[in-house]
């Protein structure tokens, strides 16, 4: 079967072992396929608020849930309650044979600091920001965020 988009869509570079929130937000905003975001905090904390689209996989169940449900060659961004928990989760996944795992530096706090979309019980009670529904403002903010050093 011929690859109709071969050469048109550039190959995504390999993900870094540690990524900042800007990298992940950029991939989401531009609709890049084939990556997964894992939240390894406990289920109640996840339910309170998490990155939009993140899958819950508590760290104590991570290997046994990830192995049967995720492709080992898939890009995976992982975050926990703090950077140490995120690093531990990334190591658990690498030890289980996942090749493309990146720890999200700063976790949910860093994500929210750059205006990344969230969902959850607590998050649903937070009113939308002034530019949340304005595409022009969102694109402008995205361009400004790409210039920032984290």
From TrEMBL:
Lineage at the top is: Bacteria, Bacillati, Cyanobacteriota, Cyanophyceae, Nostocales
User: Which Gene3D superfamilies does UniProt cross-reference here?
Assistant: Rhodanese-like domain (3.40.250.10)
Q: Which residues form the Rhodanese domain?
A: 31-120
Put simply, this protein is called: Rhodanese
* Highest taxon above the source species: Bacteria
Tell me the SMART domains matching this sequence.
Answer: RHOD (SM00450)
InterPro entries referenced in this protein's UniProt entry, alphabetically = GlpE_sulfurtransferase (IPR050229), Rhodanese-like_dom (IPR001763), Rhodanese-like_dom_sf (IPR036873)
Q: Where is the signal peptide?
A: none
Q: Which organism is it from?
A: Nostoc piscinale CENA21
